[in-house]
Amino acid sequence: MATRTRSVFALMPDLGLDCQVSGTTAEVALKGDLDMAAAFKLEPAVEHVVSGDAVDEVIFDLAGVNFIDSAGLGSLLSTQERLHDLGINAELRSPSAAARRVLEAGGLLSVLRHRDDSAG
Asked: Nearest CA to 14 among 69, 53, 77?
């Protein structure tokens, strides 16, 4: 039987993080604005989520991201690097149209593992 846990964080007034751990996979759904004010809180929040569980994969669901700036992009990169250092795979899933535009403009879709579930 797979273990399921759920944590909900308000990283900032404009960004929430909803995390569900099932077995060894943590799904982290971001909702709101991943901007400079929230970016510096993402990596510590994710580390908190993975520290208590035997997680080997983190999936970042970006469908609920309304806005992302360069600090948010940097935070996604540094969080992915930190997870890699911990032996944990990280993947982006279903970026919203706004997030996809910024990820494409920054050239990060070729750098960050991602999957677009809405593509069919």
From this structure: 69
Instruction: Round to the nearest angstrom and report the end-to-end CA distance of the chain.
Output: 29
Q: What is the mean pLDDT of each run of 10 residues along the chain (120 residues)?
A: 60 83 92 91 86 86 95 92 92 93 86 60
Q: Are 99 and 68 in contact (CB under 8 A)?
A: yes
**Residue 68 near residue 96, CB atoms below 8 Å:** no
Strand order in the sheet with 57-68: 4-12, 15-22, 25-34, 57-68, 89-93, 114-115
Nearest to 2 by CA among 53, 46, 60, 49: 53
CA atoms of 44 and 62, how far apart (whole Å): 18
For residue 110, the model assigns a pLDDT of 74
